[in-house]
From TrEMBL:
Source species: Paenibacillus cremeus
Domain of life: Bacteria
Major location (coarse): membrane
Name of this chain's protein: Carbohydrate ABC transporter permease
Keyword Transmembrane helix listed: yes
Family: Belongs to the binding-protein-dependent transport system permease family.
One GO cellular component term: plasma membrane
Pfam families per UniProt: BPD_transp_1
UniProt keyword list: Cell membrane, Membrane, Transmembrane, Transmembrane helix, Transport
Start and end residues of each ABC transmembrane type-1 domain: 75-276
Coiled-coil region: none
UniProt membrane topology term: Multi-pass membrane protein
Amino acid sequence: MSFVATKKLTVFDYINYSLLAVISIACVFPFIYVFSVSFTDPAVYVPLEFYLVPEKWSLAAYKYILSTNSFINALNSTVYVTGIGTALSIVLSFTFAYVLTKKHVPGRKLMLGGVVFTLVFNAGILPNYLLMKEMNLLNSHWSLILSGLTNAWSLLVIKGFLDSLPPELEEAARIDGCSDIGVFWRIVIPLSMPAIAAFFLFFAVSYWNTYFNALVYLSDAKKWTLQVLVKSLVIDSESNGVGAGGGSDDRVLPQETIRMASIVLAMVPILIVYPFLQKHFAKGVMLGSVKG
């Protein structure tokens, strides 16, 4: 029979755990409040009253939002930008990072220096806006996609991961007749799945939460993303909701229930995707951070 020694908790441990519990509860409460208000029946909702559990459950706010043209347009725009942007970001980031790992590539040091330079210095808002204007991408979803395709931090982390892969596998593949592209797609990509899963989540969250670029580059409200629409709902106190689309519900629903329901609908897709990538998340980020 084996006995497992347990550490005796000290006063500091109790204080530390208590503080962490209080902070955790304080962080969770706003989410509970948002969910609670969004599911509260408009007939019993009282403004400025704190809700942890709805007095009467209702899906009226969700039905109203999902029946409006403005929310459907914003959802379609966000899904479009996130889907295409994430796919292109993964392809560009991993191909570019793979090139940076090859010392025999002409101009490699210059490209790597350019990546590091952009990590420290940024052109700013005005040059980026003028660039999109010259490319005739203003008021286009492609302005959101191309402006966030990749970044220096992602490239350097992915490069560190690819540097940690055994070079013997690539040499064996070349001996078997694989070209550089064949080595990349048949050897490097399968070994990089944990990193791809991690950065898939990074890029997807970034595109899904696109707000500032959409506010700057998109002037047509029909092309707004979810975050811009949610911002207009939360801040604009003179609007009861979701714009010109109108809803199927003839009642005037309280603004707060509509706002909270829109926030929940904007969060749910990422909350659904995350558990499926969680097992790859930590592994993908840590691999390549230490090279033995």
